C-alpha cells in the first residue's frame, strides 16, 4: 500500500488506485501528523495534510470604519441631498 518517503520519514506515498481501498489507514496516518502524497505513476499530483488542530483560529477583525470617517471628516453632518447635488453638479460640468 503506502510506502514511506525516502526524503522525509513523515511522508506516505499512495497511488490513485490504492486511495479508496486504504482510506482508514490513511486517515489514521493523517491524524498522526503524517503527510500523504497522492501519486499517479511516479508523479506526485497532490499532497494531503491534516489540519493543524493546535493552531487557534483567529477571526480577522474588521477595521473601525466609522472611526476612520470621523478622523478624516470630523463629526460634520451635511444636509440631506448634498451628495446628490454634488454628483449632479459634477456630471453637468463634464457636459
Architecture overview:
It contains 3 helices and 4 strands. The chain has 95 residues and is an alpha+beta fold. The chain has a 4-stranded mixed beta sheet with strand order 1-2-3-4. The longest helix is centred in the last third of the chain and has 13 residues.
Number of domains: 2
Question: How many DSSP H or I helices?
Answer: 3
Residues in helix, %: 25-40%
Q: Whole-Å distance between the termini?
A: 74 Å
Query: In what range is the share of β-strand residues?
Result: 15-25%
What's the gist of this structure?
The chain has helices at 23-31, 65-73, 82-94; strands spanning 3-4, 11-15, 35-40, 43-48.
Topology:
Elements: E1 3-4, E2 11-15, H1 23-31, E3 35-40, E4 43-48, H2 65-73, H3 82-94
Parallel strand pairs: 2-3
Antiparallel strand pairs: 1-2, 3-4
Main features:
95 residues; alpha+beta; 2 domains; four-stranded mixed sheet; 3 helices; 4 strands
Amino acid at each position: 500500500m503506502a510506502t514511506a518517503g525516502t526524503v522525509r520519514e513523515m511522508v506516505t506515498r499512495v497511488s490513485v488506485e490504492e486511495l479508496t481501498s486504504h482510506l482508514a489507514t490513511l486517515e489514521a496516518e493523517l491524524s498522526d501528523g503524517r503527510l500523504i502524497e497522492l501519486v499517479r505513476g511516479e508523479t506526485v499530483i497532490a499532497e494531503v495534510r491534516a489540519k493543524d488542530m493546535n493552531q487557534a483560529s483567529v477571526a480577522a477583525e474588521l477595521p473601525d470604519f466609522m472611526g476612520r470617517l470621523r478622523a478624516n471628516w470630523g463629526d460634520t453632518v451635511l444636509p440631506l441631498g448634498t451628495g446628490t447635488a454634488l454628483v449632479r453638479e459634477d456630471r453637468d460640468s463634464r457636459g
